[in-house]
């Protein structure tokens, strides 16, 4: 009788363990193929994203509709914004991965910025009116943080094939492509390093909202001038 009482309890624990393992595997599959959760660690994308926001990122949005000017992208910065061998050692990397997995911390090599220049674009800051120009055309940037100039740093770049020129919306607080002009790669991020597009703010709850894909931030003339 004692054996028959304990057997269901053992089976129950095994069932719970199996359910947890399956849930983790399913979650991992979803996050590697379709959706992932990321933590915003800084103010570089204000006012749209604030420090501490948790966002859902779609890994599939750019498969049928390629990255365009004005899109916000989450990307792996290794080899551009961070060294290729970035890491803190196996233990700290594991703990950081767990923190990222549950949305409590950002990844050391994962970044979020806005696409300003596409392959072949000439991006210049700034014209006589104080605006960025793309292929000779001034760009309206309604997403900029209030009080920020398009850039305090002057630059003129041509984006190489297969690369992107990326900048934050809070320009005075953003370390972006401008900060890496003298580095290998010139601050240009490979297109194949793009992870996906933010589609939803999920935390804090009072900021729960859908993130719409913006229109391109340039003119018809500039588009045709590529």
Which features does this protein show?
single chain; 226 residues; Umud Fragment, subunit A; 4 helices; four-stranded antiparallel β-sheet; disordered C terminus; alpha+beta
Mind explaining what this structure looks like?
This protein is 23% helix and 24% strand. With 226 residues, it is an alpha+beta fold. The strands form 2 sheets. Strands 1, 2, 3, 4, 9, 10, 11 and 12 form an 8-stranded antiparallel β-sheet that branches. A 4-stranded antiparallel β-sheet has the order 7-6-5-8, with no helix packed on it. The N and C termini lie far apart (81 Å). The chain folds into 2 domains: 33 residues; 190 residues, Ribbon (Umud Fragment, subunit A). It is built from 4 helices and 12 strands, in the order αββαβαβββββββββα.
Rg for CA atoms: 22 Å
Secondary-structure-derived class:
alpha+beta
Per the principal axes of the C-alpha atoms, what is the gross shape? Answer: globular
Q: Name the average pLDDT.
A: 81
Which CATH architecture of the largest domain? Answer: Ribbon
